[in-house]
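Lab notebook, bench 4. We co-purified these components, and the gel suggests they stay together. Before we commit to crystallization screens, I want a quick structural picture of the whole thing.
Request: model the full complex, all chains together.
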Amino acid sequence: MKAHVYVTLKRTVLDAQGKTVAQALKGMGHTSIADVRQGKFFEIDIAPGADPGKVREEINEIAREVLANPVIEDYRLDIQE
Amino acid sequence: MKAHVYVTLKRTVLDAQGKTVAQALKGMGHTSIADVRQGKFFEIDIAPGADPGKVREEINEIAREVLANPVIEDYRLDIQE
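Here is the predicted assembly.
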């Protein structure tokens, strides 16, 4: 069982890193790029014995309290059996 | 039109950041976590006038040459119409 947690800056927060990448790409002639936002993700292997019913709740708690900063970041979970 | 590029360290490369997160989570009592690998992703907005037929090739080139280091990293594309 695997869980993916995707963390991005909120839309309202300036993403300087993404803006820099977008500018660099435009400067290299990639004119079809309108905007870039950068985020991070975590690929989490769940131990075989874990209770599948509790995994989503636990991963959600981990994402909210450890992996993301909910003040400035959004996160999204994707849990695969 | 949007493209997502996901970049992770290759399986054979030690992911010190992921290992640190995994250790921290285990130390906090999250015993159902077996392993964590960390990566980054880029959410790319494609300009409205871009040729959809060429976008995949262009994003692939950008991922390979700018966003990822193919020596130590793998990348994955996800292009949404």
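The first helix of chain A runs from residue 16 to 27. Worth comparing against the SEC data before the next meeting. The interface with chain B takes residues 6, 8, 18, 21, 24-25, 28, 30-51, 54-55, 58, 62, 66-67 of chain A (CB under 8 Å).
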